[in-house]
Design goal:
2 domains; four-stranded mixed β-sheet; single chain; Arc Repressor Mutant, subunit A; 15 strands
Amino acid sequence: MGKRSVPERLAALAVLESRVSERHLSYPRIKSDLDMRLAGYAGEKKADYYLEEARMKEKPVVLKDVMVPAGGKQVQVDTLVLHPAFVLVAEVKNMTGELYFDEGTGQFYRFRNGVREGMRNPEDQLNRSVAATERFLASIELPVRVHGAIVLASYHGLVIQGPVSRPIFQVDRLPGHIEKLEKENRAILKRSDLHYVVDTLNLLSREKREQFFKWYKITSNDIGPGVRCPGCFRIGMERGYGKWICMDCKATSTDAHLATLQEYRLMYGKEITSKKMRDFIQIPDLYLANRLLRERFTTVNKNKRNKRYQIKSDLSLLEPFINHLLYSK
């Protein structure tokens, strides 16, 4: 079913949290948003693991962190399962405590450590995702019913009062749920239909970059420069002869700047000049910056004096850093 890639917004938040000063007014919000995204990502990865266990006659197509168009906007769907017999939206929640869905008020809250906390209602989120997916499928002439389920990734989340309209269960019951959907529903989609849905969503997802600077009221002056160490993940590696050297853990690397350039891409976009490269990775030599860019990236213009290079997206280079944040919690 494929490996879940690091969501771009999670990667951007991780970069911001580590490069913006803790004294910045927006830092607490950045940190809180990052912690929430990390918890969600951990839960989604757990759901992926259990999806692989499902024993089905026909293999489903599973889309992860997909953006579905919804009335001029987009709705993020954690996990979208496409199968000839059914379409399922899984809203994965990594929540702990005693969980209550209040049918009368439509509110959702939990008790944790004796404290009541009001939170966004996962049932409302799921209903919105299901409705958006159904409208999208109808718009491409595939008018089918979309199923929905709330999946609890943490065993420390106990449902005391469940949702009204949607099933909710622990993540290890996910394989059985989709096996049951396959048995109870007849095939209504062809394999070519599933691939058409995938291709259409991929095409629509090529939208403009999210404006993280605007959201968190930060400027480029608030972003700390430097190459991140692939060993201890601190920023500030120094350039030696043909390699990068970490002054903290003494790790060395010949290509640590490549992951750092993915961080640059998330913050500033896909184009970079040798001057901006020099300033961001903190080297004094403009010639070296230009050589490092020429080795890996293509130019987007033919000007000799102000060449711009294109940084192709490869968030897999940031996975070690994201996994470090996940498992250090």
